[in-house]
Amino acid sequence: MEEIKVSVIVPIYGVERYIERCARSLFGQTMLNGIEFIFINDGTKDRSIELLTSIIGEYPQVRTRVKIVNHLRNRGLAAARQTGLEAARGNYILHLDSDDYFEPDMIEEMYQAAITHNSDVVVADFFISDQKGEDYCECYLSDIKENLLKSIIAPWSSGYKSVYAYVWNKLTKRSIYKEHNINSIEGINIGEDLIVTVQILYHATVITKINRAFVHYNKQNLTSYTHDKSVSCTCQRLRAIEVVADFLSPQAPLYDEVLEERRFRKYLVGIVNCDRADLHELLSMSPRLEYEKHKHLVSPHWRLPYKYALQGKIGLFVFLRNLIFPIRKIYRLYMLGKSKISVKQ
């Protein structure tokens, strides 16, 4: 029986617009021997699986390497990733979101680095794709474990010198997951990567960094969890922080500050984006945060509105928010136009 070197886990839900690009980036990899591709159909209602099946038919060399696991109902990203992990047989695990895609030599380069250095985890840079184009995001690997974990929890505090919480730019030994019982928590579908990544890197002994970008992270999919600013998703973000806090509790004094910063930022993101009808619910479910202590984390034009929100002055907050949004949009369009003129010159 062939040794499975790498298991690539891909959750699928509502991605018929992107699944072809994703699948072709996997099936066209320069390394296919010893690779298995596990797609989790998380109860998708569109044509994603139909399209995937058709694409698989075009790659006879990968048919025996592909497994599609079906959820009877939509259970969310965390459950889908966990199902994939339980089905995986590879020595290493690699995740990919189905609206993103890999460079053709990603698996080969990541795996060779892992074998060369006997790595528990291999980290790479990545691309961020949005309406404006594509940017290269460089990751930084600290030699000090405490600083590494802090930079993941609160990357802004490290000047964004971080390997980030994303699971898809990290090749990880499956034994790390198994030996330390690292699992995605069903119901926490945004922030679930923070929970997993902190635990993986905490337990990893050898972490290797490749100075290349391989993953194209698609921020244009407006249906993804990343763009969901509902109260439910804000609660999931906050729950994820508490799971991490519990995990790090034996060393709590080292991480209390960055965890509190993350609570503050995620809570305020929820406040600024949720509907007015949900504000009362959101403001009542979280303990009051220390605004004066953390206001340096807030853009100057948001400081007064946030302060009103945390004081329960919802009317004043909504009034100012409704002023800021259109002004901010106009400013961004102006700056975008200015940058285009600059490029032409």
Order of helices and strands: EHEHEHEEHEEHEHHEHHHHHH
Radius of gyration: 21 Å
Helix count equals 13
- Describe the largest sheet: 9 strands, mixed
Uncertain runs: none
Protein structure class: alpha/beta
| Cα distance spanning the termini | 60 Å
Helix content: 40-55%
Number of strands: 9
Strand content: 15-25%
Structure report:
Strands 1, 2, 3, 4, 5, 6, 7, 8 and 9 form a nine-stranded mixed beta sheet that branches. Helix 5 (145-153) packs antiparallel against helix 7 and helix 12 (300-310) runs antiparallel to helix 13. Helix content is 48%, strand content 16%. It is globular. The chain is an alpha/beta fold and 345 residues long.
Quick gist of this model?
The protein is of the alpha/beta class and 345 residues long.
Characteristic terms for this protein:
345 residues; alpha/beta; nine-stranded mixed beta sheet; 9 strands; 16% strand; globular
Protein topology:
Elements: E1 6-12, H1 19-27, E2 35-41, H2 48-57, E3 66-70, H3 77-87, E4 92-95, E5 101-102, H4 106-117, E6 121-130, E7 133-137, H5 145-153, E8 170-173, H6 174-179, H7 192-203, E9 207-218, H8 231-247, H9 252-273, H10 276-285, H11 291-294, H12 300-310, H13 314-344
Parallel strand pairs: 1-2, 1-4, 2-3, 6-9
Antiparallel strand pairs: 4-8, 5-9, 6-7, 6-8
Helix pairs in contact: 1-2, 5-7, 7-8, 8-9, 12-13
